[in-house]
Amino acid sequence: MEPELQALMRYFPYESLRREQRKVMLAAYRAMAEGRDALIEAASGVGKTIAVLTAAMPFVEDGHRVVYLTRTHAEIDKVVEEVARMAELGHPVRAVMVRGKSGLCLNPLASGLPPGLLDEFCSLAKSVGMCSLSAAGTRLAPFNFTSRELVEACREARACPYEVLMSHLAEGDVVVMTYNYLVDGELRERVLRPAMSADKAPIVVMDEAHNVQELLHSADSVKVSLADVRRAVEVLRAELPRARLTRALASLARSLARAASLLSSGRTSVPLSVSAPLESLEAARSALAEAARARLPEGPAAVRPLLHLRSILRLLERSVREGHAVVLSREGGELRMEAFNPNPLRLRGAVRRRRALVAMSATLSSVEFYSEILGARDPIVKRVPSPYVRNAAFLIYTGLDTSFKSRGDELYESVVELISDVDAHLPSGHSMVVFVPSAEFLSELLVRGLVYRVGRAVLVNPPPGELGENVVLVSVLGGRLSEGVDLRVSLCLIVGVPYARPDYKVMAVMREYSSVFPGRARRYAYVLPAVRRAIQASGRLLRGPRDRGVVVFADRRYLRLLRYFPRWLAAHVRAVRRREELLKAVALFPYGSPRWPP
Ligand code: SF4
Description:
By secondary structure, the protein is of the alpha/beta class. The protein has helices at residues 3-8, 19-34, 48-61, 73-88, 118-127, 147-157, 161-167, 180-183, 185-196, 211-216, 226-239, 244-264, 278-295, 300-322, 367-374, 409-425, 439-447, 504-516, 521-538, 558-561, 567-570, 579-588; strands at residues 38-42, 66-70, 95-97, 174-178, 203-207, 218-224, 269-271, 325-331, 334-340, 356-361, 380-384, 392-397, 432-436, 457-460, 471-476, 491-495, 549-554, 573-576.
């Protein structure tokens, strides 16, 4: 065993260290020791989190802080649990999480409010004395607490969990937060920068770092409810009938409604031009605060539209101030307003002062791209294959082409038949998941009777907690089932390549990438995000040593895209041209026993 590894093993809280974990640990350790960065492409199930945390421990003991960025709150809890395991071995390491008020706020008046309105609600409630909770007067130290443990402890101590976390931010050895705190300029200044400003330069870990590309263009976003906006304008109209302010807000409500109707005619995103000067946006926001203050005693429903419009105005103000475009898009059934910045290099300076940056993901191809957008310094590049790769068959089915020009009755009909055939050949008791390129594509399959033409029960976009035995799950590539969840399926059928429709945002990004990455814009802005979504979805199958099954990339274009697959995966993919060949492979694979119940 290498001497560094031997020294690190005293921090490692598990009995056995896998070969792949060892590679991740050593690459991360080397970067931290040499003051360089590391880009680590390692498959799902390797155990990257604990490997990197273990590598960082000697530096933590030397006074460096780890700032750990994740995609979701659930992942934050996992990091905290791993740190707690190391602490149980007797190492004095303290993790503190940073998260927004959603899931933490204990004020009963806030229940039922959407997460995006909690900041607005909190400052309103405090300004009128309707929340007495804070961090003052409590000795509660939230180190190595998961969210649930923190909320329970705060409930007992009659303290605000959010404020307790914020008041201990500077004391954590490992500070864990989501990417929001990196991409949102305001949160970055308020939270990430103080977390990064310890005496010794921090180590920054970006987990599931492939998310950075999708997130970096969105500087801030809010969900938009047109009904709420109209209601808020009515409230103001009743109070300030002739004020210029009310007219300005009414005109904003009309622009939103116009943009929303453009979206319902098939576009996925449209720019929103806001001509109001900054001062009138600010004045409108304070008028709304006044109105909300007067109504809060009537309950949260009375203030919700006002808070909602305030959150929209806050985004608009920031866009004017920071020079971002404002875009309205449709996501599922909802409208989303976004402060949009197509510059791919805008985050390069965000974590400039660091000892090392470790970016890791199952899909970090192309590493040159990530290296450029993160401003990686002399990076160590490490590729680590899945330890379970031999437990699966990876097939590209070339008998299908789902490109936009091929879409029509015939194609959708043949996709329904394909799903039905694969279902019929998968041994009974096993479940499968089908991913399709978009919500529109999914609707086309549903109107052709997909649910009735498949032998197993079909669950369309079920919440991850409601999966089951012997079922067919159907979801969209890039949707909630395609990343970070264990679906316990034995077959993963990926239909089509999820290229984005060339809408306003895609075209703006392409233009910007053309000037920043001449000759590589299409690949970076358009091709790689699509391949990444497909690879992430394929990772739902092999999550642990017991998993076995078949992954099918059903579209002949994947043959050309193989060069963008992680190398370990590309080396194991086999092309099948005929439907019978595919179905035979599905029927004869040695699946073992079904993965459900867990
Ligand atoms: S202080 Fe804490 S508990 Fe009170 S409203 Fe704000 S977030 Fe909620």
